[in-house]
Design brief:
With about 100 residues, the chain is an all-alpha fold. It has one domain. About 80% of the residues lie in helices and about 0% in strands. The protein is built from 6 helices and no strands. Helix 1 crosses helix 3 and helix 5 packs antiparallel against helix 6. The longest helix has 22 residues. The termini are far apart. The model has no long low-confidence stretch (mean pLDDT about 85).
């Protein structure tokens, strides 16, 4: 899926965050969607492990909102799988479950 199509169907998450942060998060998630599942999971781990805590928190919210509202059911299923892996990797990094975004 290309970034323009992803942004066109992302919906609500794009209205709540500054444009540059949304574009960055959308580009990250779009990259994951362009990969096979194993490569995407490796990329998720690298992203969570290398990002600052506020960036992880912001991406958590973006990924959850996008996964729950994407209009394409096949993409939504992949995003939900990616979100589950994201939360597992996040828990490994912080050594605790940090909860879900508000």
């Amino acid at each position: 899926m290309d970034l323009a199509r992803f942004l066109a169907v992302a919906g609500e998450p794009l209205r709540d965050v500054s444009d540059s942060a949304v574009l960055m998060d959308a580009a990250i998630v779009s990259d994951w969607l362009s990969m096979d599942d194993v490569s995407a999971i490796c990329a998720i781990r690298a992203q969570v492990d290398s990002s600052r805590t506020p960036d992880v928190t912001r991406l958590d919210g973006f990924l959850l909102e996008t996964a729950s509202s994407h209009i394409d059911p096949e993409v939504r299923v992949r995003l939900i799988k990616f979100y589950a892996m994201f939360k597992i990797v996040e828990m490994l990094r912080y050594e605790r479950f940090r909860g879900f975004p508000a």
